[in-house]
Each structure stands twice: as structure tokens, then as C-alpha cells.
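Exercise 3.2. Students should predict the tertiary structure of the chain below and write it as C-alpha cells, then compare their answer with the key that follows.

Predict this chain's 3D structure.
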Amino acid sequence: MGENVQMTFDSGASRISMLIRLVGIVFLIIGAALTYFTYVGAGDSSLVPQIVPVFYLGSVLLMIAGAVAIIAKYK
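Answer key:
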């Protein structure tokens, strides 16, 4: 009757889902690194103060996109 269907590494949808989640993890890491280096650069005053919010906005957008990609399900 109702069988539990588990996606294996062989199915195409499983590979796409894994790739999307991998891209999400990469986006999260890049966003976190950008936030950290912006914070460190702003503390050392090596960045122009007017551009710091732009870097923070970019890093937050990257982290949000990464979180959505990790949560998303491909069907």
C-alpha cells in the first residue's frame, strides 16, 4: 500500500537537492566570512565608513539566500 520512498544518491532529484543544499552552505559561509571581515576591517578603519553598511547588507542577503537554499526542497 503506502510505501516509504527514500531518495537515494542515484536519483536525479536527490542529486539536485544535494547540490542546492551545498550551494546554500557555500552562500552561508561566504556571507559569514564577509560579515566577519567587514567587522574586522571596520574596526581597523581600513574600510571607508560609508561602505560598511553595504557590505553588511550583502552578507545578510547571502546568508538569507543560503538558509533558504538549505531549507528548500526540490520536487
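Discussion points: The mean pLDDT is 82. The two ends are 22 Å apart (CA to CA).
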